[in-house]
Amino acid sequence: MIRHLDPEDFDIFRRIRLEALRAEPAVFASSAADWEKLPDDEWRRRLTSAAVFVDFHKEEPVAIMGLIRQGASKMAHRATIVMVYVRRDRRGGGHAKALLEAIVCHARNAGIRQLELAVSAENPAAIRFYRREGFVEVGRIAGGTIHEGREIDEILMTRRIDAEASSA
């Protein structure tokens, strides 16, 4: 079951986000330490500045995906997918695909035409998933993140969703 979280769901958000950052520290730009110290009000605020979707299995949050719309008026047709995580024992179960479908539906309803993301070059499963879902690589940031003193490239990808909507 997928749910679009609201600010009152901050405990669910905190639980799955911290799990993600602790389980896969090398693939996220943020660290668990960045988020662990946040007060409840900041967790609530982050649920108003981003659309955050969580997939549940047996009432337990097992996957998360967020969407942040560009703020500048000339870029408001674009949004960035963030915080993507599926619990290891639930991978391959369709959670990421279902979350992405929810994000695409939400984005289209909000007038967004293009989805963008950055993915670790060391996460080949995620790169394959995004390619299967219609994302194309548009660039690479060498040393985009540093984890434990090691530079990791980020791959930049985009997917147009306006043409899909008009051809569907």
From TrEMBL:
PANTHER family: AMINOALKYLPHOSPHONATE N-ACETYLTRANSFERASE-RELATED, AMINOALKYLPHOSPHONATE N-ACETYLTRANSFERASE-RELATED-RELATED. Keywords: Acyltransferase, Ribonucleoprotein, Ribosomal protein, Transferase. It comes from Rhizobium giardinii. GO terms for molecular function: acyltransferase activity, transferring groups other than amino-acyl groups. Gene3D superfamilies: 3.40.630.30. GO terms for cellular component: ribosome. Pfam families: Acetyltransf_1. InterPro entries: Acyl_CoA_acyltransferase (IPR016181), Bact_Acetyltransf (IPR050832), GNAT_dom (IPR000182). This is Ribosomal protein S18 acetylase RimI-like enzyme. Residues 1-162 form the N-acetyltransferase domain.
